[in-house]
């Protein structure tokens, strides 16, 4: 079995090279090609001899994504990629052009186990975990294609990042490494559906990233209907973990709340949410839900969303309504892959 070289940190790669009898500067060169120049093959490493390239190809593989489809929004420069992986799986990622730089939304799994009622990512179930190198390659491939540098990352694509904990932690280590892309933790957000024990594990890592929590409901009755994870860790347990996380890190947690007509968007829901989040250092993001044909929910009306926001603000919270980017290219995660799988079956 060839080893996944781009998932190794510099120490591991150096140890491998040492064992092969290669001088230390070779590890420095190769790591630089992989993580700073972001190449997808050993052949592109121009300061390395043909012999060594052959040796590297014998021992290692560079996992990388291939662009299958690229959609560019006419409205706001949002770019959406459908990538394929060497084993034939598909995944998607989105690059958004904000005033302060380019932000990429990456996937952490192929499919998802969590089964949220409104989400396209879980359609077809869970396929497999992504390796650290496969999460990185989504960024490297987009940067190469667009000829620009990504400055912010959100782990909000397909999959539940805390259900792929070790690989995601290694990804964070590599992407923030100064020998690599060197994207600071303060420019990274991780979104979770609420796997409470892993939130505590994350807290122990003491990272300066932003934690986003997909809450989507103010109480167990509604949340358990739309998010099965709530049956394992309910709203109280989740909010307790969030409060501890916020207190210990002094970082503001971001709560995601997808607004679905008649499901979670009444004034009563807003009042209950306002009460429950009292004392939690947080920011609330209201997201007009994306309608997914198989899922059947409808987006709340603009009027109801604005009313919801006002009630939360009156109870002292900071709230934003998320702009929908790339609305003409189906830019919400999971939708492009869903279409591709359907096409392949037809
Ligand atoms: N699994 C993680 C991260 C990926 S999902 C999580 O659930 O947090 C990224 C965000 O998109 C989450 O807040 C998720 O709840 C939200 N989302 C999923 N489907 C959506 C839809 N149809 N409309 C609006 N938001 C959606
Ligand atoms: Fe998975 Fe997140 Fe989608 Fe839920 S919302 S199914 S956790 S990707």
Folded structure, characterized:
With 346 residues, this protein is of the alpha/beta class. It has two domains: 3-61, DNA polymerase, domain 1, CATH 1.10.150; 66-345, Alpha-Beta Barrel (TIM Barrel), CATH 3.20.20. It is built from eleven helices and 14 strands. A ten-stranded mixed β-sheet has the order 3-4-5-6-9-10-11-12-13-14, with helices on both faces. Strands 1-2 form a two-stranded parallel sheet. Helix 1 packs across helix 2, helix 4 (132-146) crosses helix 5 (165-175) and helix 6 (196-205) runs parallel beside helix 8 (235-249). It is globular. The relative contact order is 0.12. Bound molecules: S-adenosyl-L-homocysteine and iron/sulfur cluster.
Q: What number of structural domains do the residues give? A: 2
The stretches of 5 or more residues where confidence is low (pLDDT under 50) are none
CATH homologous superfamily label of the largest domain: Aldolase class I
Provide a count of the helices.
11
Average pLDDT figure: 93
What is the molecular shape?
A: globular
List cofactors, ions and other ligands.
Answer: S-adenosyl-L-homocysteine, iron/sulfur cluster
Subunit organisation of the chains: single chain
Overall structural class, as computed from helix and strand content, comes to alpha/beta
CATH topology of the largest domain: TIM Barrel
Spatial arrangement of strands, main beta sheet: 3-4-5-6-9-10-11-12-13-14
CATH class of the largest domain: Alpha Beta
CATH architecture title of the largest domain: Alpha-Beta Barrel
Biggest sheet character: 10 strands, mixed
| Range of strand content | 15-25%
The radius of gyration is: 21 Å
Terminal-residue CA separation: 35 Å
The number of E-state strands comes to 14
Compressed to H and E, one letter per element, the order equals EHHHEEEEEEEHEHEHEHHEHEHEH
Considering DSSP H and I runs of 4 or more, what fraction of the residues is helical? 25-40%
């Amino acid at each position: 079995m060839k080893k996944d070289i781009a998932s190794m940190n510099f120490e591991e790669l150096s140890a491998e090279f040492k064992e092969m009898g290669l001088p230390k500067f070779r590890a420095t060169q190769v790591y630089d090609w992989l993580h700073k120049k972001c190449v997808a093959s050993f052949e592109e490493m121009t300061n390395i001899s043909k012999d060594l390239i052959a040796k590297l190809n014998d021992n290692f593989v560079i996992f990388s994504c291939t662009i299958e489809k690229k959609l560019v929004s006419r409205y706001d420069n949002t770019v959406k990629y459908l990538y394929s992986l060497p084993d034939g799986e598909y995944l998607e990622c989105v690059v958004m052009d904000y005033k302060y730089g380019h932000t990429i939304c990456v996937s952490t799994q192929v499919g998802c186990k969590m089964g949220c009622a409104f989400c396209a990512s879980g359609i077809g179930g869970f396929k497999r975990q992504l390796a650290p190198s496969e999460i990185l390659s989504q960024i490297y491939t987009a940067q190469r294609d667009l000829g620009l540098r990504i400055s912010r990352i959100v782990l909000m694509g397909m999959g539940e990042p805390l259900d792929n904990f070790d690989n995601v932690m290694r990804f964070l280590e590599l992407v923030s490494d100064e020998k690599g892309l060197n994207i600071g933790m303060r420019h990274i957000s991780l979104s979770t559906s609420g796997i409470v024990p892993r939130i505590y594990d994350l807290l122990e890592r003491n990272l300066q990233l932003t934690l986003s929590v997909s809450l989507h409901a103010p109480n167990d009755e509604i949340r358990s209907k739309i998010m099965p994870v709530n049956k394992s860790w309910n709203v109280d347990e989740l909010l307790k973990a969030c409060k501890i996380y916020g207190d210990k890190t002094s970082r503001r947690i971001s709560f995601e709340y997808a607004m679905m007509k008649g499901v979670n968007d009444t004034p009563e829901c807003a009042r209950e949410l306002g009460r429950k989040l009292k004392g939690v250092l947080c920011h609330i993001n209201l997201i007009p839900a994306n309608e997914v044909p198989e899922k059947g929910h409808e987006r709340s009306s603009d009027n109801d969303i604005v009313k919801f926001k006002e009630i939360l603000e009156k109870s002292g919270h900071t709230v934003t309504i998320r702009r929908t980017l790339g609305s003409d290219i189906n830019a919400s995660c999971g939708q492009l892959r869903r279409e591709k799988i359907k096409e392949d079956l037809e």
